[in-house]
Amino acid sequence: MPAETSYDRIYAVVRRIPSGKVATYGQVAALAGLPGRARLAGYALHALAGSTAVPWHRVVNAQGKLSLAALSPSGAITQRLRLEREGVRFVGERVALKQCAWKPRTARAR
DNA sequence: CCACTGACGAGTG
DNA sequence: GCACTCGCCAGTG
Question: A20: left (phi > 0), else alpha (psi -120 to 50), else beta?
Answer without folding.
Answer: left
